[in-house]
Design brief:
Elements: E1 5-6, H1 8-22, E2 27-34, H2 36-47, E3 52-60, E4 81-86, E5 97-99, H3 106-118, E6 121-137, E7 145-159, E8 171-175, H4 184-190
Parallel strand pairs: 1-7, 2-6, 3-7
Antiparallel strand pairs: 3-4, 3-5, 4-8, 6-7
């Protein structure tokens, strides 16, 4: 008998686990139509163990920034900054992250992906979104679905400087003033973003 909902129970279990651990985390359901000719590959990947990925909103305090050289005449800026990357495809800034590997946790996956994509080290400080993807074939006669979970963390900068790897992303940068073009997950997290360390000023856009 053909399995209709691949990974559904696994994803539901993960959602319950993370809601129990982090408390009051919003869950979004995102149905995605996949071209019929490609859907078998999605099903095979899910059956092989792929169940989602992890992403991080990494914040760096001004005092944690790498020191400037003696010749750099730059006025001190005490605002916090958030790390974003520019993916190889698309034209919007996104959050570093990606699929988890083997038996690593989503937290471990986020930390690894941030380091691989940007050269930045971080530690997880919280969780702000669970996004459940439901992948469906564009073929109306194919009733199979695969399920995956994308987990979005808050994180704190702990070291390193931006150094992107060829083939990973096209660029990465720290932002206090947020860019105008951002992916939807960034937009959601940006709503309460405040770069002022004292919380006196709201975040803005360039």
């Amino acid at each position: 008998m053909t399995e209709v909902d691949v990974n559904r129970e696994r994803v539901e279990s993960l959602i319950e686990e993370y809601q129990d651990h982090y408390r009051e985390v919003p869950v979004e359901r995102d149905p995605i139509a996949v071209p019929a000719e490609a859907f078998d590959d999605y099903v095979a990947s899910a059956r092989a163990g792929y169940d989602g990925g992890a992403y991080a909103w990494v914040v760096r305090d001004a005092g944690d920034a790498a020191p400037l050289s003696d010749t750099a005449a730059v006025e001190f800026d005490d605002r916090r900054r958030v790390l974003m990357h520019y993916p190889r495809s698309g034209d919007e800034w996104g959050l570093p992250g990606g699929g988890r590997e083997d038996e690593e946790s989503f937290e471990e996956a986020a930390i690894r992906e941030v380091r691989e994509e940007t050269g930045i080290d971080c530690e997880i400080t919280g969780l702000w979104l669970l996004r459940r993807h439901v992948w469906e074939s564009a073929d109306p006669d194919d009733d199979r679905r695969t399920h995956s979970l994308h987990v979005f963390f808050d994180a704190r900068y702990t070291g390193g400087h931006i150094e992107i790897q060829p083939g990973e992303v096209n660029g990465a940068a720290w932002f206090a003033t947020l860019p105008e073009r951002m992916m939807d997950a960034n937009e959601r997290r940006a709503e309460p973003w405040d770069p002022d360390p004292d919380g006196a000023a709201a975040g803005d856009r360039s």
